[in-house]
């Protein structure tokens, strides 16, 4: 059974057609590279999956159940988590505080409920171990490398029973060593049966970690194939329009 199925997804903003009849199926534990030039429709597609806005046409199914999201919290309740490019982390807080941001644990009885820091530190530490990250729960985010920051953002997706994690350019503007760390984090999610949609312009990253590649051009899907049956040269040709479709 597929974890996510899109059928005929289209989206227009007034006269602008951002997506045109996009269909896509993703299996549990699959890592799918979503590629295309700026304005190809990648962000629009991800925002529809994440519940930021509904499609103009088409249907979406999660775990074989048709869904209609009106806001991001509904997508999250269906097991869809997003790691945005800016990560949305608070620099002045610890790693654990960021993992639980907006979902803080409390103990005691109202009106004397207080934050349960001990449990949050332990749970965050367990998540970092699970991801095999060197990040520590009490470390301040402002003192972290790009790779560690990604680990915090990814650990946050593991608090819920995530089935799909959408990642927007996770390896942009970080060092080679940190890129390797982030790709390993993606592999950890895959090994736990979580599907990952990876938006990236970095061809080596996509071909290193993805099982399948989907290419959009001007809002239309022009490729949807196993990574082993494609090549960076083919993806470049599809992105630029030198090749119509694959």
From TrEMBL:
SUPFAM superfamilies: P-loop containing nucleoside triphosphate hydrolases. Pfam families: ABC_tran. Residues 4-243 form the ABC transporter domain. GO terms for molecular function: ATP binding; ATP hydrolysis activity. It comes from the Bacteria. CDD domains: ABC_Carb_Monos_I. Signal peptide: none annotated. Keywords: ATP-binding, Nucleotide-binding. This is ATP-binding cassette domain-containing protein. It comes from Kaistia nematophila. The lineage of its organism: Bacteria, Pseudomonadati, Pseudomonadota, Alphaproteobacteria, Hyphomicrobiales.
């Amino acid at each position: 059974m597929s974890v996510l199925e899109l059928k005929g997804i289209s989206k227009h903003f007034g006269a602008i057609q951002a997506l045109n009849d996009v269909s896509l199926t993703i299996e549990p534990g699959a890592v799918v590279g979503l590629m295309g030039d700026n304005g190809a429709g990648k962000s629009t597609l991800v925002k529809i999956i994440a519940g930021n806005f509904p499609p103009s046409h088409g249907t979406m199914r999660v775990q074989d159940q048709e869904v209609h999201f009106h806001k991001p919290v509904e997508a999250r309740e269906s097991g869809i988590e997003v790691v945005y490019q800016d990560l949305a982390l608070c620099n002045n807080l610890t790693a654990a505080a960021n993992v639980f941001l907006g979902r803080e644990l409390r103990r005691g009885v109202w009106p004397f409920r207080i934050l349960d820091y001990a449990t949050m530190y332990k749970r965050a530490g367990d998540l970092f171990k699970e991801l095999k990250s060197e990040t520590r729960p009490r470390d301040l985010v402002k003192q972290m490398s790009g790779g560690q920051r990604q680990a915090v953002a990814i650990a946050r997706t593991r608090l819920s029973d995530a089935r799909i994690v959408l990642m927007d350019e996770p390896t942009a503007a970080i060092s080679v060593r940190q890129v390797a760390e982030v790709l390993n984090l993606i592999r950890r999610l895959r090994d736990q049966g979580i599907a990952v949609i990876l938006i990236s312009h970095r061809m080596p990253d996509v071909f290193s970690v993805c099982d399948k590649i989907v290419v959009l051009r001007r809002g239309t899907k022009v490729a949807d194939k196993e990574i082993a049956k494609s090549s960076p040269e083919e993806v470049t040709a599809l992105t630029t329009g030198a090749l119509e479709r694959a």
